[in-house]
Amino acid sequence: MFVKENRRFLNKTDEWIRPESTAAKVTLVPLTVPLATGVLATDLAIVHPACSLRPAWDDVYDLYWKPREMDWLRKSIMIPVITALTPPTYLVDLTGRILFPIESES
Questions:
Q1: DSSP assignments along the chain, one per residue
Q2: What percent of the chain has pLDDT over 70?
Q3: pTM reported for the whole predicted model
C-alpha cells in the first residue's frame, strides 16, 4: 500500500476532500482520520486484490497458455501438466501481486 497506484479508492477520496485553508483542515481531522482508515482498509482488502486478478491471469496465460510452435505430440503431453499447474501458479502470482508492488508489462 506504499505505492500510490495501488491505493485507487484512497486517491479518489483525497481528490474529493481537498480543504484549502488550515482552519478547514484542522476542523475536518475528526472526520478524515476514521474515513481515511476505512478507505485504506477497503483498498487493502477489496479494491487492490480485485484489480490484481486480471494481471495475474495475464501472467499465467503468457507463461502456459500462449500459443507456441510445438508439434501435436508435445502439445498433447503438456496439456494435463499445464492444466494442473495453472491454479497454483495463478494463486502464487496473485498473492505476490497483492503483497508486493509488481509492475504489469502492458
A1: --SGGG-HHHHHHHHH----SHHHHHHHHHHHHHHHHHHHHHIIIIIHHHHHHHHHHHHHIIIIIS-----HHHHHHHHHHHHHHHHHHHHHHHHHHHHS-PPP--
A2: 97
A3: 0.77
Distances (CA, A) of 83 to 18, 69, 77, 78, 90: 50, 18, 11, 8, 11
> Residue 39's CB: how many other CB atoms inside 10 A?
19
> Which distant-in-sequence residues (6+ apart) come within 8 Å of 64 by Cβ?
82, 85, 86, 89
Distances (CA, A) of 3 to 8, 86, 101: 10, 28, 7
